Task: inverse folding
C-alpha cells in the first residue's frame, strides 16, 4: 500500500509570511499532483510534476518533486488570505495502475489578514 | 458542461436505505473516477471507468457499493443498505484520457446516514 504523509497537518500564519508544506512517501510515484480544496467543494488541481528534481512555479507558489520521485514540497511566498484552504498532495502509482491517485491527508492552511 | 456536475449535493439517508449518486463528467472525458472523502481525510479511490468499461473497482468498500457508466458519459454510484460508516463526501472526477492529466473534480455529494 502506498502512503503519502503530509506535514504539517495544520498551519495558521499571518498575511505576508512564507510557508512550506511537505509530502513524503517511501514509494516511488510516476507523477505527483497538488490540489487545493475549499470547504464544500472538490479539490482543484494546482500542478502536476513528473520528473525527479522538477521545479514548477505558479505565481507565488513553488512546487518541487524530489530527485527520487518519493517526495514533494509546496512553498508559498507572501501568503494572502485567499490562499486559505486544504492543500492535498496526490501521487500516481508507477506501472499499470497509474490512473489511481493516492492522496495525503492534507495540510489545512489558514492565512490571517 | 464546463465542469463535473454531481447531484444531489447533500443526501440524508436512514440506515438501511438505498441511495444513488449521480455524476456528469466533462463532455468527451474518457476517464471517470469515484473517490470517498471522510471528514478530515484525503480522498480515497473507489473505482475507475474508461468509457463504459469499469476497469478497476478495487477500492469499493463492500458489495453494497456498485457503480455504472452504461453509455460512457454519466455515472451513478449506488450504495445499498446504507450504514453509518458510509457517511462521507463522495467525489467524482474526470479527465481526457491517460498519462499525466490531472483530474477535474466535482463538488461532491455529502452523504449522511442517520
Result:
Amino acid at each position: 500500500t502506498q502512503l503519502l504523509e503530509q506535514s504539517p497537518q495544520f498551519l495558521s500564519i499571518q498575511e505576508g509570511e512564507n510557508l512550506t508544506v511537505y509530502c513524503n512517501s517511501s514509494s516511488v510515484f510516476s507523477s505527483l499532483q497538488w490540489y487545493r480544496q475549499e470547504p464544500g467543494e472538490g479539490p482543484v488541481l494546482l500542478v502536476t510534476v513528473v520528473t525527479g528534481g522538477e521545479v514548477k512555479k505558479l505565481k507565488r507558489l513553488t512546487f518541487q518533486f524530489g530527485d527520487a520521485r518519493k517526495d514533494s514540497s509546496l512553498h508559498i511566498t507572501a501568503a494572502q488570505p485567499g490562499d486559505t484552504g486544504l492543500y492535498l498532495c496526490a501521487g500516481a502509482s508507477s506501472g499499470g495502475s497509474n490512473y489511481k491517485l493516492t492522496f495525503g491527508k492534507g495540510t489545512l492552511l489558514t492565512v490571517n489578514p | 458542461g464546463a465542469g463535473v456536475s454531481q447531484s444531489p449535493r447533500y443526501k440524508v439517508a436512514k440506515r438501511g436505505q438505498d441511495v444513488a449518486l449521480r455524476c456528469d463528467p466533462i463532455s468527451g472525458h474518457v476517464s471517470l473516477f469515484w473517490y470517498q472523502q471522510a471528514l478530515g481525510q484525503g480522498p480515497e479511490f473507489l473505482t475507475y471507468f474508461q468509457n463504459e468499461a469499469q476497469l478497476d473497482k478495487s477500492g469499493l468498500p463492500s458489495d453494497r457499493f456498485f457503480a455504472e457508466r452504461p453509455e460512457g458519459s454519466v455515472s451513478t454510484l449506488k450504495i445499498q443498505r446504507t450504514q453509518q460508516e458510509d457517511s462521507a463526501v463522495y467525489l467524482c472526477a474526470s479527465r481526457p484520457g491517460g498519462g499525466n492529466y490531472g483530474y477535474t473534480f466535482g463538488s461532491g455529494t455529502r452523504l449522511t446516514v442517520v
In short: Chain A touches chain B at residues 4, 30-31, 33, 35, 40-45, 48, 50, 88, 90, 92, 97-106 (CB under 8 Å). The CA atoms of residues 59 and 77 of chain A lie 9 Å apart.
